[in-house]
Amino acid sequence: MEPLGVIGAGWVGLVTAACFADLGHEVVVRDVVPERVADLEDGRVPIYEPGLAELLAANRERIRYTLDMADVFERARMAFICVDTPPTHSGDADLSRVWRVVEELPDVGERIVLIMKSTVPVGTGALVRERLDRAGLAHIGYVSNPEFLAEGSGLEDFRSPDRVVVGAFTDEDGDAVAALYGFTEAPILRSDVASAEMVKMASNAFLATRISFINEIANVCEVTGADVEAVARGVGLDHRLGPHFLRAGIGYGGSCFPKDTSALKQLAANSGYHFQLLTAVIEVNELQKRRVVGKLVKHLGSLRGKTVALLGLAFKPNTNDMREAPSLVLASRLMAEGASVRGWDPVALEEARAMLPSVEVTESLHDAIKGADAAVIVTEWKELQALLSPEARGLMRKPLLVDGRNLLDPAEARAAGFVYESIGRAAHDLDALPETEEPETQLRQ
Ligand SMILES: NC(=O)c1ccc[n+]([C@@H]2O[C@H](COP(=O)([O-])OP(=O)(O)OC[C@H]3O[C@@H](n4cnc5c(N)ncnc54)[C@H](O)[C@@H]3O)[C@@H](O)[C@H]2O)c1
After folding, report:
1. Residue closest by Cα to atom 5 of ligand 1
2. What is the percent of the chain with per-residue pLDDT over 70, rounded to a whole number?
3. Same domain, yes or no, for 95 and 78?
4. Which ligand 1 atom minimizes the distance to the CA of 256?
5. Looking at the predicted structure, is the pLDDT value of residue 443 above 70?
6. Residue 196 falls within a domain, yes or no?
7. Claim to verify: residue 69 and residue 107 sit in the same structural domain
8. Widest CA span of the chain, in angstroms?
9. Range(s) of the domain holding residue 64
10. Ligand 1 in reach of 285 Cβ (< 6 A)
11. Is the CB of 85 under 6 A from ligand 1?
12. Concatenated DSSP letters of 247-275
């Protein structure tokens, strides 16, 4: 089987490496962070992705980790570029890591093919091609093969993709990359490089649009008495629309949607086009996070001196990724309103402590809510079902629960004694319930 290189040992790189190794390929993974490479060599996986550590361990003899780009091309003639492409201050994608890879390529004197899995703006492939040609490296091929995996289900998404997109400058390179995906029945879309790049940007923009759309419907449900959960079910049953990405909540976050929507908006703007719809999608998402503050103020009045527990700090369940997590914005907003903020997450504690130094990050859910005036479900970890108990409610000073992900059943939350607010569903009144007395004496671990 074709030996493969993987450049960048993050979510995409490690999932790609583990899955291709599991198919029988020898894989050399290169990163630039020495601790990351050392950890991986010692069997420690620096990210939380279900099943990944086990798959890497099971295929240990086929995977090698290195800091040296030359090692990647010792045997491999095809390498996936999986480096990060974060946003710049202008909202454009920062391609510095991609350029660094191009600059560091060894000339092995044979045809090698670079396969771009990182999400890059349309036109990046053409720029890379131009730079390679100018450097006398016309024999280095370039293929756009965007990645669609979602954190939390990365392995499954890799093994059973909805589609594989292969955009190439030459048929020969496209064929070689398509052949790597012989393991899947999924359709393989062959296209030019720019179109492949746009498929990725458009897909993420469309998913973000669905989220902002259902969130706006939820906001209108709140003022009209409809229930967004029923509405989303009814809308999703239309085969033309489908049920996916119609979950109302406090907005999207993470390392992809915010940066990719912003990169597409900027790409359009830089080309003289104002992408109105996407601009609105981004703004709706920003406002949606802040609506939680309004819900807290509605019940508690001023937040000055109040204690609010943020539950679920990673940007979504089953990951420890905190990049662009809604919890970051919420924590800052709440502190700006004068509240003390606590936080808890089942896996992202270390990351949260580093990114939220002013938040008291607790080891247990109970420690986070003990004596709090309100708790906010920010990320829908299933562990938060444990809130549905009179014990949990008894720990809080005020039993106000704002469910930013519609995780809990409203009737069950109320039965457990909470004043329960969610998104796009009927709320009820805090004054109807008495304060809990002496919360400290009721601590249960
Ligand atoms: N995370 C996702 O769910 C996801 C899904 C689809 C696409 N993507 C895209 O894939 C790309 C990678 O995302 P990620 O989440 O895996 O990023 P990540 O930040 O988790 O990992 C990137 C890795 O690349 C390394 N790196 C940086 N420069 C390097 C270089 N010159 N040589 C070798 N390694 C280098 C970094 O040290 C880091 O370990 C991004 O463009 C992202 O938008 C991500």
Report:
1. 149
2. 96
3. yes
4. 43
5. no
6. no
7. yes
8. 77
9. 4-191
10. no
11. yes
12. --SS---SSSHHHHHHHHHHHHHHTT---
